[in-house]
Design goal:
Layout lengths: L2 E5 L11 E7 L20 E4 L3 E4 L4 E10 L6 E6 L4 E7 L2 E6 L8 E10 L5 E10 L7 E4 L9 E7 L5 E8 H4 L5 H19 L3 H7 L3 E3 L2 E6 L7 E10 L2 E2 L4 E6 L11 E6 L6 E5 L6 E7 L4 H8 L6 E2 L3 E5 L9 E10 L2 E2 L4 E6 L11 E9 H8 L8 E9 L3 E8 L2 H12 L5 H11 L9 E5 L4 E10 L6 E10 L19 E4 L8 H13 L17 E2 L3
Parallel strand pairs: 4-10, 30-33
Antiparallel strand pairs: 1-2, 2-4, 3-5, 5-8, 6-9, 7-8, 9-10, 11-12, 12-15, 13-14, 13-16, 15-34, 16-17, 16-18, 19-20, 20-23, 21-22, 21-24, 24-25, 24-26, 27-28, 28-30, 29-31, 31-32
Helix pairs in contact: 2-3, 6-8
């Protein structure tokens, strides 16, 4: 019985092949060609293959095997054929046979015979056979289906995992872009690059970042869609299993295309929730998930100017309803502004323009702001059980509570010593600037990771000593108060879990924290200058939900 000897070609190391070769001979070694010059004149011509059998992976691609001619005549030629249509383009030249192998989409191995035929000017003839065995496609762990018609900016999808408890990563890319990934691992590494940067920045593991940012999904997804897509474009929806930050299941894929851009029956409306300068808040109501451009403008802009801007290259694109959407820029009291939206697919307007004009109000002023801070450390496993929150298990927990007569709060923990180091650098660059300016700069840099609740749970990446920087402000944001609470998040300083019941309402937030000592002083020096030189521009503060690549249609 013949045995297979596996061989990994060098081409795989440069991402050019996906194959494993297997020798087939009685002594488990490739055949050895005769030395040049030892051929016997007039002897029979033969084709000697380097391997009699090769194995290729299910993904397909190109495969090759070497050959040697013995007693070749004048002008030798070799042609190749296969008894299976999944092997094509067989070429033989310069001692190498190459062929193209189609991907195996079945769940069983398959075998083909490749026959090489020799001819020359002396009408000599010879032949040799090569056995090609291709592995089966890995069992699909996820079934992705397109349950209905697509729109010009959205594609519906459903996912059914075989293992309902498996965690998986879900994404969409243009189908043309997917052709550039030579392996599942290459696609995984590309997807994870942003999360890995976040992990490096905050001294965390990739798995912790994926969990904390809700990047992993589990269980079936029904009545979901990918919004904010380009019209008339073919996309690939795909997912794969992830465990402990590693790829553990092959990529499952399905292709679908958006339709051409055209009018849609999406009834857009804008509703003002708050007109207070420091906290302008509004809702955008929709009747479909078609994409739309939306922004805020100076009240002096005409409808024509607004529509031209919304159809321009820099427009912000949204899909679905927006509830309690805040304007992150502080607007001028007594001045008129306009929030506007228009349906958009690519460069085509799909609805009429909707404009809501309003005048900004001052808001409540509190001149005697107060702030009382409480910080506690907890064992994450015990607190998870006490609160019924399994996602915080395995982490040391820092809890922060702010008692204030102010309207808004913000919180962020720093490793002990970081704030004083940053303050010293700030003072050297901007002598005479107020402490309030420094703290406002710091909050501007960590805004995306702050807690804006008066109570917050921080999932710490490790034990250590921390300083929790807190801010309270009135509704008009004319008065601010800052405070720092020092806390050792170490086992010897853990509080009984029942202590949290004095402070924690059901709406308290959970926030991801960086590891200590990850600030780059040179980077912050540059950002300080940018902050001090910057001027206000209109912008919105969006949540992860607002910016999500997937949206549920159930609501």
């Amino acid at each position: 019985m013949k045995k297979f000897m596996k061989w990994m070609p060098i081409s795989m190391m440069i991402l050019g092949s996906m194959f494993m070769f297997a020798a087939c001979s009685d002594d488990n070694e490739p055949t050895t060609p005769e030395e040049p010059g030892t051929e016997t004149p007039g002897a029979k011509v033969s084709i000697q293959l380097g391997y009699e059998s090769i194995e290729v992976e299910a993904a397909g691609g190109s495969a090759e095997v070497t050959y040697t001619l013995k007693n070749a005549g004048t002008n030798p030629k070799i042609s190749g054929t296969s008894d299976q249509d999944w092997i094509t383009d067989i070429q033989a030249a310069d001692g190498k046979v190459t062929m193209s192998v189609a991907a195996n989409t079945e769940t069983a191995d398959r075998t083909a015979k490749v026959t090489l035929t020799y001819s020359d000017d002396e009408k000599n003839a010879a032949s040799a056979e090569l056995t090609v065995t291709q592995g089966a496609k890995a069992e699909e762990k996820f079934t992705i289906t397109i349950p209905g018609e697509c729109g010009s900016t959205w594609i519906p999808f459903e996912i059914q995992p075989k293992d309902q408890s498996a965690q998986y990563f879900l994404n969409i890319r243009p189908a043309e872009e997917m052709e550039g990934f030579v392996s599942d691992e290459a696609l995984f590494n590309s997807d994870m690059s942003t999360y890995q940067q976040l992990a490096d920045q905050y001294g965390m593991s990739l798995n912790d970042v994926l969990i904390a940012t809700n990047a992993l999904v589990s269980g079936p997804l029904e009545d979901y869609l990918f919004p904010k897509l380009s019209p008339s474009t073919e996309y690939c929806i795909y997912c794969y299993g992830v465990e402990n930050g590693k790829l553990v299941a092959p990529v499952s894929k399905v292709n679908a295309a958006t339709t051409a851009a055209g009018p849609v029956d999406n009834k857009l409306s804008i509703e003002m929730v708050s007109k207070v300068a420091a906290s302008v808040i509004f809702n955008v109501n929709v009747t479909t998930f078609d994409a739309y451009a939306m922004n805020i403008f100076d009240g002096s802009a005409s409808d024509a100017e607004i529509e031209n801007a919304l159809m321009g290259d820099g427009a912000q694109i949204y899909a679905g309803p927006l509830e309690n959407m805040p304007v992150s820029s502080k607007l001028e009291v007594g001045k008129e502004y306009a929030i506007a939206a228009i349906g958009r697919a690519g460069n085509t307007a799909t609805t009429g323009l909707v404009v809501e004009r309003f005048t900004v109000e001052r808001g409540q002023v509190i001149t005697d702001l107060t702030m009382d801070l409480t910080s506690l450390a907890f064992d994450g496993d015990k607190l998870a059980e006490h609160l019924g929150e399994p996602s915080i298990a395995g982490y040391p927990i820092l809890f922060n509570n702010i008692e204030t007569n102010g309207i808004y709060t913000a919180t962020y923990p720093f490793a002990k010593g970081e704030l004083s180091e940053l303050k010293a650098m700030f003072d050297s660059m901007y002598p005479g600037e107020s402490e309030e300016t420094f703290y406002m700069f710091i909050f501007s840099q960590v805004a995306d990771y702050c807690s804006y609740n008066k109570q917050s749970l921080w999932m710490m990446n490790g034990q250590g000593s921390y300083e929790v920087l807190c801010m309270a402000t009135d509704e008009a944001q004319e008065n601010y108060k800052f405070g720092i609470s020092a806390i050792d998040v170490v086992e010897s300083n853990y509080s009984p879990v029942e202590e949290i019941d004095k402070y924690l309402p059901s709406s308290s937030s959970k926030v991801l924290l960086k590891n200590a000592g990850k600030f780059s002083m040179s980077e912050y020096a540059s950002k300080m200058k940018e902050y001090m030189d910057s001027k206000s521009t209109y912008s919105f503060k969006t949540s992860i939900k607002d910016m999500s690549k997937i949206r549920s249609m159930k609501k």
